[in-house]
Design a protein that fits this description.
Elements: H1 10-34, E1 41-44, E2 51-53, H2 54-70, E3 75-78, E4 90-98, H3 100-105, E5 111-118, E6 127-135, E7 141-145, E8 149-152, E9 155-156, E10 169-172, H4 178-191, E11 197-199, H5 204-212, E12 218-221, H6 226-238, E13 242-244, E14 256-259, H7 261-273
Helix pairs in contact: 1-2, 5-6
C-alpha cells in the first residue's frame, strides 16, 4: 500500500495557485495573439475528428519549460507531450488548449487548463491542490485552491442552487469515437426531458468553471481525461459543487457529474437509471 504524501501548507498552496494562474494567463496570451486566420490540423489522436494543432504543442512546450524552471522537482502530465517524472510528490496536469475543435474553427469557448495535484496523477486517487482555467476568447480566469475557495478574476464564485432538476441548466460533452457518441446520445435522450435544457459548449474546463460561478447548474460527461477535469473540477468543488462519478465512485473517465450537491445527487441517480 502506497503512503499518501504530506500535503503542502496553506501558504504553499496559495503560491501554487498563483503560479497556476500566471502560467495559464501567459499561455492564453500566446494562443490569443498567435491564432492565424486559418488554423491547420497538425495531427489527430483517437480519431480523424480529434485534432491537434501546432499551437497545442507549442503552448504545452511553453508550460513545461516554465514549470521546469520554477518547480524542477515536480512531475508533469500533459495532453500532448511525454510524462515527466518528479520527486516532490506533486504533478502538474496540463491541457494547452481545452476545446481544440473550437479553436480550430474560431468558435468560443476554448481555454488553457493548469492544475497541480498531490499523489498519483490519477483522478481516482489524486488530491487536487490548485488550478487555473483561462478562457482565451474573453480573457476570464478562474482559479481554485484546496480549502481556499474559487474565484473568477479575483472575485469569489459560488455554485447556483436551483430549486429542482427540472429547472437546472445542464452542460455536457461528447467523445470522438462513433460508438461512444451513439451511447452518449442515448443517455442524453433520457436526461433532456428531465432538465431545463442542455448546453454543449465544447470545453470541459470552461463548463466546470461555469458550474462554479452558477452559469450552468450541472455538468456531466463520460470520457474526460485527467487534464480535462483537473483544474475545473477543483474550481467547481471549491465553489461548493459536488464532484463525483456514478455508484459512489470518484469522478474519472467513466463519468464525471458536477453541481450543487442536492441537484448533483439527482443527476447521478438519473444517469445511473439510464445506464450511463
Amino acid at each position: 500500500m502506497s503512503i499518501a504524501p504530506a500535503l503542502p501548507s496553506a501558504s504553499e498552496i496559495t503560491d501554487l495557485r498563483a503560479l497556476a494562474r500566471a502560467l495559464a494567463v501567459e499561455a492564453g496570451a500566446v494562443v490569443r495573439g498567435g491564432r492565424p486566420d486559418r488554423v491547420e490540423v497538425a495531427a489527430t489522436k483517437s480519431t480523424d475528428v480529434d485534432p491537434v494543432t501546432a499551437m497545442d504543442r507549442s503552448v504545452e512546450e511553453l508550460l513545461r519549460r516554465r514549470i521546469a524552471d520554477r518547480r524542477p522537482d515536480d512531475a508533469i502530465l500533459g495532453e500532448e507531450g511525454d510524462d515527466v517524472a518528479g520527486t516532490s510528490g506533486l504533478t502538474w496536469v496540463l491541457d494547452p488548449i481545452d476545446g481544440t475543435v473550437n479553436y480550430l474553427y474560431g468558435v468560443a469557448s476554448y481555454a488553457i487548463s493548469v492544475a497541480v495535484v498531490a499523489g498519483d496523477p490519477d483522478p481516482a486517487v489524486w488530491t487536487p491542490l490548485a488550478g487555473a482555467v483561462h478562457s482565451v476568447v474573453d480573457g476570464a480566469t478562474w482559479t481554485g485552491a484546496r480549502g481556499q475557495g474559487a474565484e473568477r478574476d479575483g472575485t469569489p464564485v459560488q455554485v447556483r442552487r436551483p430549486d429542482s432538476l427540472a429547472t437546472s441548466l445542464v452542460g455536457t460533452g461528447f467523445g470522438y469515437q462513433a460508438a461512444q457518441r451513439a451511447e452518449q446520445a442515448r443517455v442524453l435522450t433520457h436526461v433532456l426531458p428531465q432538465v431545463r435544457d442542455i448546453r454543449r459548449l465544447g470545453s470541459a474546463a470552461v463548463d466546470l468553471c461555469l458550474v462554479a460561478e452558477g452559469r450552468l447548474d450541472l455538468y456531466y460527461e463520460r470520457g474526460l481525461n485527467p487534464w480535462d477535469m483537473a483544474a475545473g473540477g477543483l474550481i467547481a468543488a471549491e465553489a461548493g459543487a459536488a464532484v463525483s462519478g456514478l455508484h459512489g465512485d470518484p469522478a474519472t473517465r467513466r463519468m464525471t457529474a458536477v453541481g450543487t450537491p442536492a441537484r448533483q445527487a439527482e443527476l447521478v441517480a438519473l444517469l445511473e437509471e439510464a445506464g450511463a
